[in-house]
């Protein structure tokens, strides 16, 4: 009965009954099942119940379809992952923003593949949330950092999040492909005699090169602590950055 229901669901559509939005939506559905790397036009045609030529009418090659999917992913990401940093509570709000970014991408491999891996050099991705990032950096200036320090702090946080997510995603891809170890940590083995400290610590679940929650939180705390120290030093030196100094930069 299940096979019959599936067959009825996948009956061929009438010619001209599909549009670009249907195709993109179906591509996301199929990518959730097979992944971005295994997504193909013939598979998508079967998933949608149309001939592959109906897809090529709108998207001449897979790369065109992926571009459209990336644009939609960027809009979706911008909708629910807008950066927010409050000057009065900068440490907690910046940390919360970092954790939200990471949870968003780790919770959606498709978003990670399209936004962080595939569109890493995309001009559209570079412009994502520019005004929101401007506001976050300005809040860090109001909290007591210089414009340069605020920019570097936000940049370091963003880089830490993206690097952590991409390393985890690449490990998942390697393991799924059954092509050996997922990452360097899977192939490392420390001899207790020659490297007793490393052997003892990694035996407790710590990772040297992998990206787990412990490594992420430690790196995030280092960034926050460094920013707090700079704010303290600026306060002692009498440097009090303002909103205007951030705009002038």
Automatic annotation (TrEMBL):
Pfam hit, one: TetR_N
Lineage: Bacteria, Bacillati, Actinomycetota, Actinomycetes, Mycobacteriales
The protein, known as: TetR family transcriptional regulator
Domain of life: Bacteria
Organism: Mycolicibacterium duvalii
InterPro entries, A to Z: DNA-bd_HTH_TetR-type_CS, Homeodomain-like_sf, HTH-type_TetR-like_transc_reg, HTH_TetR, Repressor_TetR_C, Tet_transcr_reg_TetR-rel_C_sf
Record's keyword terms, sorted: DNA-binding, Transcription, Transcription regulation
Any one biological process term the GO annotation gives: negative regulation of DNA-templated transcription
GO molecular function: DNA-binding transcription factor activity; transcription cis-regulatory region binding
Signal peptide region: none
């Amino acid at each position: 009965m299940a096979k019959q229901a599936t067959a009825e669901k996948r009956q061929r559509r009438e010619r001209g009954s599909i549009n670009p939005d249907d195709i993109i939506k179906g591509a996301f559905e199929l990518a959730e099942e097979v992944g971005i790397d295994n997504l193909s036009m013939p598979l998508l045609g079967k998933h949608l119940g149309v001939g592959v030529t109906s897809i090529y009418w709108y998207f001449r090659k897979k790369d065109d379809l992926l571009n459209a999917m990336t644009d939609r992913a960027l809009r979706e990401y911008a909708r629910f992952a807008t950066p927010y940093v409050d000057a009065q509570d900068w440490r907690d709000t910046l940390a919360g923003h970092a954790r939200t970014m990471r949870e968003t991408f780790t919770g959606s491999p498709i978003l990670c593949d399209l936004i962080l891996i595939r569109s890493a050099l995309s001009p559209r991705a570079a412009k994502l949330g520019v005004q929101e990032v401007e506001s976050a950096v300005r809040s860090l200036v109001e909290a007591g950092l210089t414009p340069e320090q605020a920019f570097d702090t936000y940049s370091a946080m963003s880089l830490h999040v993206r690097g952590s997510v991409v390393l985890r995603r690449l490990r998942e891809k390697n393991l799924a492909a059954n092509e050996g170890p997922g990452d360097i940590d899977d192939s490392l083995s420390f001899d207790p005699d020659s490297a007793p400290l490393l052997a003892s610590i990694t035996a407790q679940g710590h990772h040297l090169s992998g990206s787990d929650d412990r490594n992420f939180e430690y790196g995030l705390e280092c960034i926050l602590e460094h920013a707090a120290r700079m704010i303290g030093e600026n306060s002692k030196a009498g440097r009090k950055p303002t909103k205007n100094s951030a705009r002038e930069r």
